[in-house]
Amino acid sequence: MTLNLTIDPAAAEAPYEQVRAQIAEQARSGLLPVGHRLPTVRALAEELGLAANTVAKAYRALETDGVVETRGRNGTVVAAAGDAADRQAANAAAVYVAQARRLGLTRAAALAAVREALRAEYGDRG
User: Fold this and answer.
1) What pLDDT score was predicted for residue 83?
2) What is the pTM of this model?
3) d(CA 31, CA 25)
């Protein structure tokens, strides 16, 4: 199984973000199963025609998000990301709720703000 990544140099998103988003989506969808070993930073950078630092930045972001784990000499592998992503989303939601309460928003206004932010981010896709 190999990564299927495409970098669009004309895209508004930086190349590292394109790499991060595509790997994250493939991990979430199960296309990259838990434990799948990713290419080395250098190998992927060479394959995609990117600087090694660009791929390293994407890998660091994926690790921070809990999508991958680095196992030293054993490389970087897809993690069981669901739990980590769920924890991070719950923490972000708790921070938002506390801020909304401090601002004096009603529950309905706080939910409306979230709906609008989701619509702005995802559009009609979801």
Assistant:
1) 61
2) 0.66
3) 8
